[in-house]
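Class, discuss our next protein.
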Amino acid sequence: MATALAGFALGLSLILAIGAQNAFVLRQGLMRSHVFAVCLTCALSDAILIAAGVAGFGALTQAVPGLELAMRLLGAAFLIWYGARTFQSAWRGGQALQAGQPAGSVRSALLTCLALTWLNPHVYLDTVVLLGAVAAQYADRLSFALGAMTASFVFFFSLGYGARLLAPFFARPRAWQMLDIGIGLVMWAIAAKLLLM
């Protein structure tokens, strides 16, 4: 039980910071658009990556030197594009950005979610490398991994469905513009950090 709690605590601490993936989940939750599918996709993706890290997959990134650079460049390019898209949305204003109204297809939401998850090198560093390294210190690595996976499920579903509490604030187009600007800045800041690593 203590090992599972350690995995839960570390897993939760690694995903609490607002990043590209979390900002997207928050936005989907505010719009009440495909929330379950997006939260489930994020949590399952994390579970796969955590399992890979605990199983020792982190050694691959160290064994293939060019892999990390390629992941960083691809991730930065995607984040620059996505950030530009959110700035464009902020510039246009509040058309069809009312809480509770679906925006886009579930396919589009899931593809964006998967790209924000799997093209982000920080996800690999956190879930595969860091969690994998810490899990290696425990005799019961399975419990540690299950604890970390549970943290992902709890966090993403809390963020996605908890965002509804902010819906009255985001009923104003100006609030949506500020959210889009904030998301764009987060995306570009992460992209800059990836390029400067």
